[in-house]
Amino acid sequence: MHRSLQLAAAIALAAMVLVHNAGCARANRYDGLKALPLEEVKPRVAHRGADQAPRVGIAFGGGGVRGFVHLGVLRALEDAGIRAHVVAGTSVGALVATLYASGLSAGEIESLAKSASRYELLDLVVSREGVINGQAYAAWIRAVTGNRTLRELLVPLGITVTDLAAGKALLVVDGDPGEAVQASASVPGVVIPVQSNEHTYVDGGVLTIVPVRFVRAMGADVVIAVDIYCGKHPALRGNALDTVLKTFRLQSCLLSEAETAEADILVRPAFEPDNPVSFSQRDEAILAGYQAMKASLPALLIRIAQPKGGGN
C-alpha cells in the first residue's frame, strides 16, 4: 500500500508540473504543404542515360531517439565520398533527411543534434489531442534550414505523413520544412495532429516506417534504406504500457516489411536504447549506425559502380 501511495503521489506531482509548465494549445493548420500519394510522385532528379552511374537515394526511417543512428550512417557515407541525389524521411528520419537536404555536412548535423535542447524543441500543452503542440520543433527546423521551402533545398526531399481520414501514406514535396517534419513526427495521442487543406496528418511511421517506395518514385536508381526501428525487438518488461507499445511496434514493422525489403541496400543497425526517451546513448547509437553503414559499403559501391543498364 505504501508503494501505491508513493506512485500515486509521483503521478500527481508529474501532472501538476506538466500543467504548470504547459501552455494553451495552438492550432496546427498549415495549408501550404503539398502532399502527394505514391502514384502521383514524380522524379525529382534529371534523367540519366543507361551508361551513366545510378542515382542514389536514401530512405531515413522513423524510430524516435534511435534517430542518432542516422548520423553515423551519414558519417560513413561522407567518409566514402558518397552523396545522395534524393532523400526522404519518416518522423525522426524526416528531420535528418531535411538537415541533409539543406546542405549540411554529417559533422554539422551531428553538432546540431547534440546541441539542441529538449526545452527548445518541446512545447508542452494542455489539450485533448496531445501533450506536445509541435510548433517549437517546426520553428527550430525552419531556422536551421534558412527559412527555405522544401523545393528550395539543395537535395530533392520528401517527407512522409499519414492522412488519417483517408488512411493513406503521403509524401510532402513542397512547403515549409519545419511544418512538414512536425507533421511527420506527430505521434498520435502525444503530439497534436496537423491540419492541412482539410486533411489531418499524423506520424508518417503509421503506414511508412522506411519510405523506400517514395524514394524510388522520386527518381533513385539505388535506394539505401536505413531501418532503425524493426531490426531488434527487446524482451517485454511486463507492464501494460510496454506491452501496448511493443504491440504497435510489431504491427508497424510487419506492415512495412515488404516495402523495406525492396531497398537495394538495407542498413539495419543492432541498436536498441535502454530508455526510449533518453539521449544518454546517442554516441553508442551513432557508432552503431557508422559500423552498419561501413559493413554495407562494399555492396553499395558495387551497385553504384554499375551503369544504370548494368546487371545486378
Count of helical regions? 10
* Fraction of residues in helix: 40-55%
Q: How does the overall form come out from the CA principal axes?
A: globular
Order of helices and strands: HEEEHEHHHEHEEHEEHEHEH
Number of distinct beta strands: 11
Roughly what fraction of the amino acids lie in strands?
5-15%
Q: Structural class given helices, strands, pairing?
A: alpha/beta
Mean pLDDT: 88
Biggest sheet overview: 9 strands, mixed
Rg over CA atoms, rounded to whole Å, is 20 Å
> What separation lies between the terminal Cα atoms?
65 Å
The low-confidence parts are 1-21
Description:
The protein is of the alpha/beta class and 312 residues long. 40% of the residues lie in helices and 15% in strands. The protein contains ten helices and eleven strands. Strands 2, 3, 4, 6, 7, 8, 9, 10 and 11 form a nine-stranded mixed β-sheet that branches. α9 links the parallel β10 and β11. α3 packs antiparallel against α7 and α6 packs across α7. The radius of gyration is 20 Å and the shape is globular. The N and C termini lie far apart (65 Å). The N terminus is likely disordered.
